[in-house]
Structure formats: structure tokens, C-alpha cells
């Protein structure tokens, strides 16, 4: 009986050690959150937390899109530029009729859904193109998406520079559009509701559909997945398409939230999305990750970003801290993978 007790203690100790190692970067960031809250308790006010949640909503949608690619051991470096493209496309067609500097001076009031659909369709097609390049030509995802990042930014900049706009920030957005990003139903922001709905749909896709199971299978062991009859090309094209769709949707909502757009919108957002995914437990080696983990990673990362500004940390130092967080998260992830092998 005494031996059992000792064995139970050792097992519990081992489990605790494994848990700490598994969640090390997550626990460190939680400690940083606590430190920020201690330095300036005002950040815990309901209104401030609501603002952080609103800012997190578009990033949650983007990170969930990025999750599909990271689950296969890849990464989408063009995500930030895709956000900018979707923001510019939707905003350019959804300005009020009396705005002085309209992108399309002679364009009537188009249905709200039309520019939004156009923006997400373009993003989805770019995503599927990335998937085709990765699947058919065996180009690493980071190279394929690096190329598409340059293409997307170039195409978006040409569009943004069209006369009469001539690269001027797009403003004067219609109230029915900005309502999607800054409106609320009671106390709950509409954009948070969007993020919640997208999260539920993504969870369902990954956990309850054949496509979702194929994504995990391809990410965990592509050779075994191919042998088992999974169409690797179809899966990769599909998941990159889903990634493009969700990232473009986040770009549309970001334009609605901020009330404007430029071709530089979303620059660097892909780094926050990647970091949030890895912090939330999505393995860079592929095949491991949960929707709840990604959501938690985004909210913690957003809280830290907002919190560092809130307590007066220099923006240059913020970049250094974010860089350290990213490399630490990936290092811990790789270490966990090596230990399990």
C-alpha cells in the first residue's frame, strides 16, 4: 500500500512536470498578464476588456485560418497582405454617397453583401492557388506564400493607386458596414459574435467532418495519409482555401471596425496569428492543435500587446518582446516534439 502511494506521488509529480513543460510558454505569458494588471489595474476595467475582446475578434478569425495551414506543418506568410487586400476591396465599394473622396465616384449604393463576398472570394482563390503550388509543385508553404505575399501586395497597391483615389486612405464608410465592426447588440459587440460563430464552425469542421480529420492526418503523417487513401492535393488546396477565406473575412471586419482601409492594412498581422497559434498549442510540426487553444492564445497575446501600450512600454521594446515570445513558443514546441520522439 505504501509502495502504491509512493508510485502515485511520483506519477503525479511526473504528470505535473509534463504539464508545466507542455504549457510553459502559456504559463509565462499568463504571468506577464498578471504583472501588467498589477502595474496598472485599470486595464481590468470592463470597458477596457471589452475593447481588447473587440480587437481580438478579427485576429481570432485570422488565427483560425492560419491554424489550418500550421496543422500541416506549414505557414502562410501572405496573411497580413491578404487582410489589407480584403479591407481595400470591401471599403472601396462601401463608401457613403456624399463622401468627398469616393473611390468610385459614379458607383451607386451596392448591396452590403456584394463587396464582402467579392473580397473573400478573391482571398479564397489566392489561398487555393497557394495550396495548388504546395501540393502539385512541392514548393514549401513559406516560399509559396512569400511569393503570394508580394503578388497580393503589388496587386492591391496598383488597385489602391487607381485614379481618382491615387493611394489616399479610404474613409467615409457606410454605417451599415461599420456596424459589423463597431456596433453591438446590447452590451455584446457584433464583431465578437462573428468571431464566436466562426470559432464554432471551425471547431465543427475540424472535429466532425471528414475534411477536418484529413487535415489532421495530412499534418501528422502525410505518407501514411496518402497510403490510407486521402487525397493530399485536394486536402491541401481545400485547407489553404479555407485559410484564405477566413483571413479575408478578418480583413473585411477589420476595415469595418476601424472605419477605413489602406493597402498597408494588416502588415505584420500574420506574425501575431502564427504566434497566437503556437502559444495556443498548435504544433509547428503539424497534426496537433485545438480551436480553444488558438482562441486563448489570441486573447492572451492581444492582452499583452494592449497592456504593454497601456503601461507605457516603448513600441520598439514591444517588438523585441513579441519577437522573444514567438521564438520561445516555437522553441518549446520543437522541444516537446523531440522529447515525444
Task: Please write out the topology.
Blueprint: H1 2-22, H2 24-39, H3 46-70, H4 79-92, H5 113-137, H6 141-160, H7 175-182, E1 184-185, E2 188-189, H8 190-208, H9 210-220, H10 222-227, H11 232-258, H12 269-279, H13 291-310, H14 315-340
Antiparallel strand pairs: 1-2
Helix pairs in contact: 2-13, 2-14, 3-8, 3-11, 3-12, 3-13, 4-5, 4-6, 4-11, 5-6, 5-11, 7-11, 8-9, 9-11, 12-13, 12-14
Keywords:
mainly alpha, 73% helix, disordered N terminus, globular, 341 residues, 14 helices, single chain
Write a structural description:
With 341 residues, the protein is mainly α. The chain contains 14 helices and two strands; from the N terminus they run αααααααββααααααα. The chain has helices at residues 2-22, 24-39, 46-70, 79-92, 113-137, 141-160, 175-182, 190-208, 210-220, 222-227, 232-258, 269-279, 291-310, 315-340, and strands spanning 184-185, 188-189. A hairpin with a 2-residue loop joins strand 1 (184-185) and strand 2 (188-189). Helix 3 crosses helix 13 (291-310) and helix 12 (269-279) crosses helix 13. It is globular. Residues 1-11 have low confidence and may be disordered.
